[in-house]
Amino acid sequence: MSLDHYVSSDVDPVTTSPEKYRPHYHYTARKGWLSDPNGMVYFDGEFHLFYQHDDYVNVFGAMSWGHAVSKDLLHWQELPKAIIPDEHLGMCFSGCMVVDKNNSSGLSKNTLVGFYTSELPKQQQSMFYSLDNGRTFRKYNHNPVIPNSAGMSKDFRDPKVFWYEEQSLWIMALAGPERIEFWSSTNLIDWQLQSWFGEGHGAHEGEWECPDLRYMPIDGDSNNCVWVLIVSVNPGGPNGGSGTQYFIGDFLEVDGKLRFITKQTDVKWLDWGSDNYAGVGWTNLQDSSFGNRVFSIGWMNNWTYAYKTPTNQWRGTMTMIRELKLETFYEELVLTCCPAPIYKELVGDELANLDNVSLNKPTNIGSDLSASRIQIDFDTTQTDHVCVELSNTLGQLTRIGYCKSDGIFYVDRRKSGNQDFAEGFSGIHIAKATRTYNTITMDIFIDRCSVEVFFNNGEYAMSELIFPEEPLSIFKPVAQSSINPTNVNIRKMREITRL
Ligand code: FRU
């Protein structure tokens, strides 16, 4: 079959000229469409980031794996696409990459082995590899390694593989329409189905996609670990459309099969904003200076309007890289989500502090606010509602706050700028607070087309795209009574390089 059918004819080929919304410190491809992050792995001094990509169109096109490398997770060099569609098995959907340290595959010791979903004639799992530190890639000759056999679901995708020390096995998590399957292998090539998880658990309004299973310490205690299963769901996210949920449980052998089990009955969201989807974690980070930390990255978008966001030469940006931790808050275990510590390197000059902002009064910070970090804390004992307003000279405004009586944290982007390009974009998005807060901390990262908010040190995260038509420049803290913020610190964020 010709590959022409992958290219939408109604979209102009994209060019490389810059645009006002291109982020300063988030990863975007040089041109074209970018969606799910794929195959993040650390190997031999480099962090690899792959992603769903088509550099010819700015909508979902001939899905290939774009590729970038970094020495510090901040500055990136874009490399040629790692894999592209082929006539036999079609496009290359989402997946992962591992380092085959013991040569389980027989390809060679320390081969980078990747897995992705092929889509023709049905979704099935394929393998590819690199023998030269991720500079060139070859598809495995006998793909698919897990065929979509008779009776299997048409939705069968997004392989995420990890080494399961306990039984010296490779485990692959895979998404079915509304479940996660676990397959095992000794050689990365022959796979057996172990079990599946999903029925009766979590949000089921849409399809389950892009799983990741992690063994994580509770409150930093490596002698007390549990398993966390991360699952994207679309639609059915916390504020409509795409979202990412997680389950805390155990992964162990029950009745001769390896299974994920959980006592969790509620739905837990990794990010309550509208724009953090398909996120999974880095593999092999333990070999880097970051050790056993868990770093993840998501696609900062939502399938509800992803085709229509108002950019042209490029479309789609990643979230900031997040550090995930399991932390106890009032006996509840929460998968917290904060910017990875690397971003300290980008935090620059102070733009304002407690001495030069006033409650309920706008302060003109200047256009540097459009790539900045705001830390603001409030004592909320005497007030029901606190928020900050971020606006521009056109009066376009994004509001971020907490309301005690409604029990919500929120980001209101109803007047944030260009918001009518797609139905379902404009809105006020909420995170449901699990208790009442008498102190609030907000860590807000602003970039050219986004705000990422971390309330109370990552207990609640909200990632939101915004498209102000002039740069954000005005800051206003707001509270009902005469309480003042207890801390304000606004600093410029430096630009990253994306070669
Ligand atoms: C998630 C997803 C994946 C799929 C990929 C295709 O956004 O739908 O399930 O592999 O996108 O690009």
From TrEMBL:
The entry sums up its family as follows:
Belongs to the glycosyl hydrolase 32 family.
Where are the membrane-spanning stretches? none
Name the source's superkingdom.
Bacteria
User: Does this entry carry the keyword Hydrolase?
Assistant: yes
What UniProt keywords are attached to this protein's entry?
A: Glycosidase, Hydrolase
Domain Glycosyl hydrolase family 32 C-terminal: where?
363-476
Ranges of residues in domain Glycosyl hydrolase family 32 N-terminal:
26-333
Q: Does the keyword Hydrolase apply?
A: yes
User: What is this protein's name?
Assistant: Glycoside hydrolase family 32 protein
